[in-house]
Design goal:
Enzyme class: isomerase
Strand order of the largest sheet: 2-1-3-4-5
Bound molecules: D-altro-hept-2-ulose 7-phosphate, zinc ion
Function: Catalyzes the isomerization of sedoheptulose 7-phosphate in D-glycero-D-manno-heptose 7-phosphate.
Pathway: Carbohydrate biosynthesis; D-glycero-D-manno-heptose 7-phosphate biosynthesis; D-glycero-alpha-D-manno-heptose 7-phosphate and D-glycero-beta-D-manno-heptose 7-phosphate from sedoheptulose 7-phosphate: step 1/1
Number of domains: 1
Shape: globular
Radius of gyration: 16 Å
GO biological process, one term: carbohydrate metabolic process
Number of strands: 5
Structural class: alpha/beta
Subcellular location: Cytoplasm
Helix content: 40-55%
CATH architecture: 3-Layer(aba) Sandwich
Low-confidence stretches: none
Number of helices: 8
Distance between the termini: 34 Å
Length: 185
């Protein structure tokens, strides 16, 4: 383990977020328009990105730092009955897409998280969202993979290490929360 090298990689990933500032503003505007139009935000991803999807949805329905009305945000990664039945009956690739076939409406927004941009179940969710007239935002890494061109608004943290990309994704999610609540003290 080379902590200094990892910290250097972390700093590089965090600095890459600064280049994404215009896209982060666009994502905040899209989420705002979704809520103002009566829509919902869905989030999905695998592994650490599943945790990030849940983290973000919890901060929108609960709160980030300030008291304010909750926003309708749902992580597609939390219902083990849905995940196991859809996975068992239709295949793991459909676990998020099938939920959107049931829940997603035109005007809703999907936040798709994938550090590689290659996860088939996240790609299927984006395709399902697009079919229903939903907006799609991608929190991606490396070169964004096929998801970079599949989503309406790609935010690509252009470094290679999965962990470092996830650390930058968490920062982006918190910046999006700040767009709804103002800057932290
Ligand atoms: O958290 C980590 C690594 O930091 C892992 O659980 C990681 O999220 C998993 O390998 C995922 O399956 C990776 O998927 P993706 O980011 O390529 O879409
Ligand atoms: Zn991890």
């Amino acid at each position: 383990m080379d902590i200094e090298a990892s910290l250097k990689g972390h700093r590089r990933a965090i600095e890459a977020v600064a280049d994404l500032a215009p896209a982060i503003h666009q994502a905040a505007d899209l989420l705002t328009r979704t809520f103002e139009g009566g829509g919902r935000v869905y989030a999905c991803g695998n592994g650490g990105s599943a945790a990030d999807a849940q983290h973000f949805a919890a901060e929108l329905t609960g709160r980030f730092q300030a008291d304010r009305p909750g926003f309708p945000a749902i992580a597609l990664t939390t219902d083990t009955s849905a995940l196991t039945s859809i996975g068992n009956d239709y295949g793991f690739e459909r676990v998020f897409a099938r939920q959107l076939e049931s829940l997603g409406r035109s005007g809703d927004t999907l936040l798709a998280l994938s550090t590689s941009g290659y996860s088939p179940n996240v790609a299927a969710a984006v395709a399902s969202a697009a079919e229903r007239g939903m907006n799609t935002i991608g929190l991606l890494g490396r070169d964004g993979g096929p998801l970079a061109t599949a989503v309406d608004l790609p935010l690509v943290v252009g470094v290679d290490a999965t962990a470092r990309i996830q650390e930058a994704h968490i920062l982006i999610l918190h910046l999006l929360c700040e767009a709804f609540e103002g800057d932290p003290a």
